[in-house]
Design a protein that fits this description.
Length: 361
């Protein structure tokens, strides 16, 4: 689906949003069968919705059976815990009736019917768990080797490459199974980690899930980031407490750079932005960095240490980040002289390419 087609689809989805929300709520019955001799044991159903709300239901095994009935408004990942058993049973709550048979001594210990995505979900979950463990394994060694700014930047570059590899693995898992609910759960829970362009592309392949409230939420978020929309005006103080208002900036191109001074990845990006600013400032580029401090004491000395040659402001709240749908830093929005969005979440290389094309027009 191209950008124009996806934009039309987003509007259509939001127009039908009230109907979709009503259809999304469902009750699911999970019937569990356990080995003989497990009667009297406590078992729990632990489920986590896409918004990461955790809920726990408890039952006692009677005649080898335990039943859970849950009402949910969105897709949930879940697992069954049984007293005295080391292994949990992971699955997705994605249909009205799910049957789970579990016998750790059997050649096929777990059999799940009624949940079409649960088998693949366990495979996807295991793979991501292995990747997370791999990341955790190299970090202590790398931390011990960070002794200078050069080694620190090397650490950041390695960490960025690992995160990019992880994100690409998740994207591949989704693209390989776009019609399975496990893919929607992966996308919705990992959404903030995807660059805008990648999230936009993946979303266009997941229209099967338009009845989920989480789909409506992300559709609205992506629509708000579409190029061509007018940027929301704001006024923030610079490092000298002087107000800077977006609408009063008159340069041909304005990059709003959302940063956190404590993040090395933001500092590394600023080093790359300095080269871009030097090259395109004569052509009309202005950069406005917004340091988010989230109500804490602003560490101005830390901001000043970077010696950024462009406008720098401090946001001690979250309103600007919320209005621009910023869920992580570093992030950015490129505007034209009329304060219309040109692009969102550009890497330094993408920004340089975009500016090169724009100045030729």
């Amino acid at each position: 689906m191209n950008t124009c087609g996806l934009l039309q689809w987003l509007w259509f989805v939001l127009f039908l949003g009230s109907v979709s929300f009503a259809n999304a709520q469902f009750t699911s019955r999970i019937d569990c069968l356990f080995p003989a001799g497990w009667d009297g044991k406590e078992t729990k159903l632990i489920r986590k919705s896409i918004d990461q709300t955790l809920q726990i239901d408890t039952a006692i095994i009677v005649n080898r059976q335990a039943t859970f009935t849950v009402t949910t408004t969105d897709l949930c990942s879940a697992y069954i815990w049984v007293e005295g058993n080391a292994d949990d049973i992971n699955f997705l709550i994605d249909s009205p009736k799910i049957n789970i048979a579990f016998d750790p001594q059997a050649s096929l210990p777990i059999v799940i019917s009624g949940s079409p995505s649960s088998d693949i979900w366990r495979q996807q979950r295991d793979l991501l768990h292995q990747l997370n463990e791999a990341q955790e394994d190299w970090q202590p060694t790398f931390n011990s080797q960070v002794t200078s700014d050069d080694s620190l930047m090397s650490y950041v570059q390695h960490a960025d490459s690992v995160r990019e590899a992880y994100t690409n693995v998740v994207a591949n898992l989704i693209e390989n199974n776009p019609s399975l609910t496990s893919s929607w759960y992966l996308f919705a829970t990992q959404y903030a980690s995807f660059p805008y362009a990648q999230a936009h592309k993946l979303f266009g392949q997941l229209t099967t899930f338009k009845n989920y409230p989480s789909y409506q939420k992300l559709a609205a978020d992506l629509l708000a980031k579409q190029p061509g929309k007018m940027a929301i005006d704001f006024t923030l103080p610079d490092l000298s407490e002087k107000p800077i208002t977006l609408s009063k900036l008159t340069r041909k191109f304005i990059l709003i750079d959302f940063s956190d001074a404590h993040l090395i990845s933001c500092r590394q990006r600023h080093e790359k932005l300095k080269k871009i600013y030097k090259a395109y400032q004569p052509a009309g580029l202005e950069i406005l960095t917004i340091y988010s401090v989230y109500g804490q004491q602003a560490p101005k000395e830390l901001f000043q240490k970077e010696k950024l040659p462009w406008l720098v402001t401090i946001d001690d709240g979250v309103s600007v980040l919320t209005n621009y749908h910023i869920e992580r830093t570093p992030d950015n929005v490129l505007l034209n002289e009329h304060k219309k969005v040109i692009a969102h979440d550009l890497s330094p290389d993408e920004l340089a390419t975009t500016l090169s094309e724009l100045v030729k027009k």
